[in-house]
Amino acid sequence: MSSIISIKNALFKPSLAKNIPAVYPKAIGLNIKSNETWACYGSGKTTMLKILSNKFYIPYPMASETFRYGAGIKNVKLFQFNSNIPINECLSTRYEHFKDSYFDQTCKQYISNPTGNNSRLYESIVDAFQIEELLDRWVMGLSNGQMRRARMAKVLLSKPDVLLIDEPFLGLDPATIKKVSKFFQEYSSKNNQLIIGMREQDELPEWISHVIGVEEDKGVIFHGSIQECYKQFHQLRDDMKKNELPTIELFNQEYHKKMQNCQRKEVPIFEMRNMTVSYSDSKVPVFENMNLKIHEGEKWHIQGANGTGKSTLLSLITADHPKSWNSHIWQDGQPRKSGRCNYFDINADIAMSSPELHAIYLQRGKEYSIEETLSSGLHDNSSNNFAPMWNKLDKLQQERITKIISELRLLSSTTKFGMLSTSEQKVILLARALLKNPRILILDEALSGMHSVHRDWALRQLAAWPGTMLAVAHCPEETPSCTHQIDLGIAKSN
């Protein structure tokens, strides 16, 4: 058994500047061997994966034996769903992640390895990630879940020596999770080095042999085989579920009273009448003669396997889809046509939190402070206006934001967004959406990737939310309380 990654009594820093503290207070000692498959759990899992990738932090002391990859290890890749998403200024928020140099590629061209594909590996990945029917589709036309599967396939086909994946099952429907997990089991059994980061609510896959427990403020608290760390592992999961955050009111009293007293109108806030959406590269339409009515104050759970049209439906509501303007879409009892209302008027009533918005904000606003990030949610126009407006807020608004930061137990109001953990970033973006007091709140897998403490806080906030809500979620524990539901897979078959 050869060593793949060896760390000997090392601290890790983002830079070697004198006043910069180590990311963890205690030195790390770790030896990962070739026949082992590891999982990282805890609030510090993402930081730990970054350390293992050797691309974000500098080991200290800087000696050759402090951090070392095994012989022949050259291509180490860290894969995260909330990063490395290509952006293009020409497309609106919901389509920006399809872009840049990948805009005019088919899925097959996108995932293929420029140096050539191993045919057996290629076929197994295409099958496991259910990509066969997507190969001739343009990347621009893939749904969120389909794009995630394509990105995962792409990194696997690059044949890394060591692959680190943070939350590999994020955003996948249950059937796909089972198939992907089985693929990883076979993949790791063939001497492919795989290390994954898991949320505390996730069950440990049976093919994992070793586990690392990591807390953001303490560092590595245990590591070893499943048998050795069984009690510590379950204790960590239990402890993370006990740290409940207080429920604070993000929407003002006047708005709450207005929405609670609002009678259910006969005229829907949004309606689709015999709506058909299809892409030229697909034989099966996304929607065909689809009918849907959403009334003021209703809370909808939008379900369906990857590719059934969840993202398309949301982009029609936000007027981001090319077919958003036609006589089959009605808004407040009027057909939505060009000249009758514009994009900014529509989105002035909408707030959103989604993995795509998260990825875009990481590229555009990671240097903004927490208070600047939250303040940007109070813009009158769309959710993708990230310009800070802290100095334009009145005293009451600033006090509300300061209280939120305090109650969420974040470091400081001036802490940069990019310095927060992924879970902290997601809960801040959700709070940003709620602060706007929107007429329509759209949550596209907004709770996926949150630690249980933040997720439970979010669920309590959303249970008290008085406005109209549309929530896409695959897992029951990430689904807000709703009054209505639609399964687009069933709706299409009917």
UniProtKB/TrEMBL annotation:
Region forming the signal peptide: none
The UniProt record lists the ABC transporter domain at 5-242, 272-491
Q: Does the keyword ATP-binding apply?
A: yes
Picking any one GO molecular function of the record gives: ATP binding
- What Pfam families has UniProt attached to this entry? ABC_tran (PF00005)
- PROSITE patterns found in the cross-reference section: ABC_TRANSPORTER_2
- Name the domain of life this protein comes from: Eukaryota
Q: What is the protein named?
A: ABC transporter domain-containing protein
Q: Which gene encodes it?
A: TBLA0A08720
